[in-house]
Each structure stands twice: as structure tokens, then as C-alpha cells.
Sequence to fold (316 residues):
Amino acid sequence: MADKKTIAVVGATGAQGGGLVRAILKDEAGLFKVRALTRDVASDKAKELAGLGAEVVAADLDAPESLKRAFAGAHGAFCVTFFWAHFSPEKELAEAGNMARAAQDAGLEHVIWSTLEDTRRWVALGDDRMPTLMGKYKVPHFDVKGEADQLFRDLGVPATFLLTSFYWDNFIYFGSGPKRGPDGRLAITLPMGDKKLPGIAAKDIGGCANGIFKRGGDYVGKTVGIAGEHLTGTEMAAALTRALGQEVRYNDVPPEVYRGFGFPGAEDLGNMFQFKRDFNEYFCGARNVDEARALNPSLQTLDQWLAENKARIPLD
Ligand SMILES: NC(=O)c1ccc[n+]([C@@H]2O[C@H](COP(=O)([O-])OP(=O)(O)OC[C@H]3O[C@@H](n4cnc5c(N)ncnc54)[C@H](OP(=O)(O)O)[C@@H]3O)[C@@H](O)[C@H]2O)c1
Fold:
């Protein structure tokens, strides 16, 4: 135990970080121990992590000193921001900067930054294929993460830039699951046309991150994209149909219709799906299923994820 290096995990009580905490703790190679960061060490989720064997420490991305303390003495850190908790790209950028500075301060040897593409590299702000949002973004929660890559680079933080994929868990938690239409039939609604959407079991992001930490230096400075499978809307609907035992259709809508759905973040997500659809070859090419499986041999397919999780998908 004494020889094990510490990985500090931001978002340890959440989807990505929680997957990493569990992947490290159950890894038989046992190279690392885990320091789970949370704003509330007394929460049930925090206590559960402590029960599994993690060191649980208090830290808040908005309190730089708490991050410095939490990163001190660690070998590596998994860094992620939480757009959907506040809908503020500026806050994400500030928090990414806080993590990059804390990583530099602690002299960490390996950081994984959970990032996404700055879509403005593909669709300039003046391009009217999709609306500009919040004054300076096309896909705010993507663009700002991609923009933040440079904060880690500028400080010389030895970072791996991890491009994640659509969580299949969104079928449970994020309102993306099958909904009944006026005809009573179930459908998933996505503006992806006939293009493939890279998807992943959220916990497998952490499994891949563990694989990256284990490989260490080979991955410093690299951008790595991961997915469990690339599937069309029709293929995802077929998988849901098989798992749920009732027909689920794919309802393809134009991105402009999706943007108009009116729920918080609908415009951001409408632009996001349009980016994934219109730059599909790039987007899928940047997320390699074989590499993800090499990093995380227990990587799930959608069928496998559904076999485990179908009972949790709300159907109404
Ligand atoms: N949904 C998708 O399909 C998808 C796909 C790719 C990427 N993403 C990205 O994933 C990110 C979110 O990651 P996630 O899904 O792992 O999050 P999550 O499951 O919502 O986890 C959030 C955790 O972060 C912690 N947290 C929130 N604010 C914090 C702060 N100020 N300081 C420290 N910890 C804080 C909370 O822990 P405590 O309450 O214990 O502090 C919470 O448990 C988003 O930025 C999103 O853009 C999502």
C-alpha cells in the first residue's frame, strides 16, 4: 500500500470521477490509491467511497486553495468540470484554470483533463449553419472545454486530453430516454439523421482514465478519444427495443427543431448534435473504440449496458 501512487479524482461522487474511483479500487494491478474529492465529505456518496477504500477529502473547484491542498502529494489527478450544474462556460473555464494551477503547484506527474472539442475550429462564429450562443460559442459546453486545453498546456502541466462521448446513462438521467408520442409508441428523439453517435457507459470513461494513468508517460501530451460503440439512431432504437421488449422508434428531427424544444440547454445540445452529425467522419474518427477497449478491457457495448441498466430507464 505504501508504494502506491495517489490519484486525486475530481467529481468522485459523480459519473466520470466515480467510475475512475471504482476502476482504480478494483484494479488487481493495484498501482494506485485514490483520493476522492468532494464538496461534502459527510454525504452518503462520499461515505460510500470511503467505505470502498478511497481517501475522501474536501475540495471545491471554486476554492483554489482547497484544490491545491487536495492535489498536494499526489502523482496524478483526473480533472473534470460540471457545465450542467450551472450552465456557465465562464465558470468552467475559471475552474479548469484553478485545476491547472493546482496541478502545476503540486508538481503532478500526470493529469487527465476531461475535455471536448472547441467546435469553433470547425464552425466559425460567423457561420450561420448554427446559431451563436451566449455571444461567443457554438456549443458552449464543448467549446469552453476545448478552449481550456490551452490552460493546461500553457502551464506545462503533463496532461492527457480525454475526449469523451455521449453517455448512454442519458437514457436514464438526462431526459434522452424513450418517450411516448401521441400515438402511444415509444421513440428516442435525436437530430442525428443517419449518422453514427459515439456513445459510452459513463462509468467506462473512468475505466479508460485508469488505463491511461497506468500507461503514464506514453499518454502525456496526447489527445485520446473514447467510445463504447458508434451507433445510428436506428441502431440505438433497435437495441432499446431488444432490451425493453417493446418497440422503440428513432425519431429523427432537424437540429433547428431540437434547438426549439425549450428545455434548459436545448440550443446548446441542438448545436452539439448538429456538430456531431455534420462533422461525423471527424467526430467518430476521433473516438476510437478499439483503443478505448485496450485501455479498459471491460468496456461495454450498448447491449451490455442495457442488460445491466434497462430497469432504470424511465418509460412514461
Ligand atoms: N452527459 C453526457 O453525455 C456527457 C458526455 C460527455 C461529457 N460530459 C460532461 O461531463 C461533465 C460532468 O461530469 P459528470 O457527468 O461526471 O458529472 P456529475 O455526475 O454530474 O458529477 C458531478 C459531481 O461533481 C461534483 N461537483 C460539482 N460541482 C463541484 C465543485 N464546484 N467543486 C467540486 N466538485 C463539484 C459533485 O460532487 P459533490 O457534490 O460531492 O461535491 C458531483 O457529484 C459535464 O461538464 C459534461 O459536459 C457529459
In short: The first strand starts at residue 5 and ends at 9.
